[in-house]
Amino acid sequence: MTWFEPERGDDKLREFLITALIDMSASLCLQDSEGRYICITTLPARWSLKSGVTPSDEAIFGADIGARLKEMKAGLAKPGDHAELEIEAGDDTFFEFRCRMIAMADQEVSLMTIVIDRTEDRRRERLLRALLREVSHRSKNLLAIIQSIASQTARYSGTLETFLTKFRGRLHALSQSQDLITDSSWRGAYFRDLLKQQVDRYVQENADLVKVSGEDVLLTPNASLHIGLALHELVVNAVSHGDFLSRRRRIEVSCERIETDAGPQIRVLWVEPVGSLDSEALKAARTARFGSTVLERVVPSSVNGQARHSLEKDQVRYELTFPQESYE
């Protein structure tokens, strides 16, 4: 339905329509049945008409766009006929031309063209496509990590129950790290947040026994997933096979930037005190703690780094170094 109050006058109606078109980033053109322009409103500043020049598609929009519009309009003959054309006008701008044949109040047939600026729509579409590709890529990476975790866990699990316990714990650690990455709009996760997740889950009542120092670096998404997994392994090993809780001795964790011959790197150091062990106890403890290759192979290879994992008579020491591209 279209209605307006006649007493208001054409001037007020014209002002309203032009303001509305500008707000909608739309323009309106009207041509008679012979193709002569009757009205042009609110065209973008990129298109203009020189003084004294008769309006035409070529004169207003240029030879290329004008030719394409002329070809499209040639297929419209009777009221109701319509066609649409999207044009890239240069400078990464896009415009949609909607042409329709209409019958006016005096039954004269005219051609109405609505020009809509679609630049922002196309930019949003490109961004959405890029985001979807990124999500697809990251999903494949995550599935590959899960597959690797499942393979390594199965290889070093003697029973199904052991496999399920370890696999579920590692998946949970992975999901917690993923939550941090998602909350940061895929920028990554901070080292201390990754450590806090594991401490809160396994030693929440004794969180004071895990002391962290150094820099709180922002790790890339890939590094966040794998280092979060390493911290999970270290905390679980400490709780399951260590005595720091009963002895009330602190685990020292540090994260710092260092300069090496290979360039700037990050060093993560875990030092866990253990009671003095004799040779037999030391051998048993190493077997229990080192049953997984996650700390020694999976994590360092995933961040292009190096790891040293050792169990001595009075401490467990894990040192991981990785290059600059894994953090910001």
Automatic annotation (TrEMBL):
One of its GO terms (molecular function) is protein histidine kinase activity. The keyword Nucleotide-binding applies. It comes from the Bacteria. Transmembrane segments: none annotated. Residues 134-216 form the Signal transduction histidine kinase HWE region domain. Keywords: ATP-binding, Kinase, Nucleotide-binding, Phosphoprotein, Transferase. It is an enzyme of class 2 (transferase). Pfam families: HWE_HK. Its EC number is 2.7.13.3. It catalyses: ATP + protein L-histidine = ADP + protein N-phospho-L-histidine. This is histidine kinase. It comes from Ciceribacter selenitireducens ATCC BAA-1503. The lineage of its organism: Bacteria, Pseudomonadati, Pseudomonadota, Alphaproteobacteria, Hyphomicrobiales.
